[in-house]
């Protein structure tokens, strides 16, 4: 590995599984010390990293909690002395059209996917601006820039993340802090597979033949005719976290196999 994140301290939310877990592993391989945060699974991710000789600590955290968000930032500073990068990656699915989505679903999706990103940003910005450096990456989705049926609350929450990123980038750029949105297309993580099963598989189990065929059809909508991988998304996150992107802020960094162009 190149060590391009050597001596950086990175907080990753949603680090218990999927893209977040893989990002934690890859960032650690590049020399970063990782604060792994998630409702479940964060300790397991941190343990896997330390067993490979990396530096990581796990924390059970709910991104919708202001107290937990502050505790994440404090843990990074107390354990490693700083917070250089925030990868605000925690998120949940949310189904329903604008007309039929219930209030409970709407509120929960917004709380995790949008308010959770804001709270995480708010927690780390004081130390980043004081040091006049830092990179914030927020996971949005191609659903936030392209109309997709049946997931109105999710789409709205991810579009909100993009708007929050742009506003925050303008606010804190003069203080040396960069803020960018990472916009992945479909990537077969457990969350995405279960979500897709519920959305287009008629409620069939994620490992059913019906869901498998639906996933195969969905891939044909992509110009590159396949879904992405966790590593392909994490490659983009690594770029946004490191010095190679030092003049990049306020962007919507799309990694979607061309879906947004269709």
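^ structure tokens above, recovered residues below v
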């Amino acid at each position: 590995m190149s060590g391009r994140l050597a001596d950086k301290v990175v907080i990753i939310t949603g680090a218990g599984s999927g893209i977040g877990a893989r990002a934690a592993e890859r960032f650690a391989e590049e020399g970063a010390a990782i604060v792994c945060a998630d409702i479940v699974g964060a300790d397991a991710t941190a343990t896997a990293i330390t067993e490979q000789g990396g530096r990581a600590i796990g924390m059970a955290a709910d991104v919708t909690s202001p107290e937990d968000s502050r505790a994440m930032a404090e843990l990074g500073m107390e354990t490693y002395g700083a917070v250089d990068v925030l990868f605000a990656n925690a998120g949940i699915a949310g189904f329903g059209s604008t007309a039929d989505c219930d209030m409970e679903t709407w509120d929960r999706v917004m709380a995790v996917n949008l308010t959770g990103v804001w709270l995480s940003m708010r927690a780390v910005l004081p130390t980043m601006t004081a040091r006049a450096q830092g990179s914030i990456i927020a996971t949005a989705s191609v659903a936030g820039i392209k109309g997709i049926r049946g997931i109105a609350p999710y789409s709205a929450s991810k579009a909100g993340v993009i708007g929050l990123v742009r506003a925050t980038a303008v606010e804190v750029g003069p203080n040396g802090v960069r803020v960018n949105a990472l916009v992945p297309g479909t990537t077969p993580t457990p969350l995405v597979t279960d979500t897709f099963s519920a959305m287009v598989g008629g409620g069939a189990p994620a490992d059913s033949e019906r869901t498998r065929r639906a996933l195969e059809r969905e891939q044909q909508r992509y110009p590159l005719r396949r879904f992405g991988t966790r590593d392909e998304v994490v490659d983009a996150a690594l770029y946004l976290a490191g010095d190679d992107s030092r003049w990049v802020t306020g962007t919507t960094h799309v990694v979607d196999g061309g879906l947004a162009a269709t």
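Residues 103-131 form the longest helix (29 residues).
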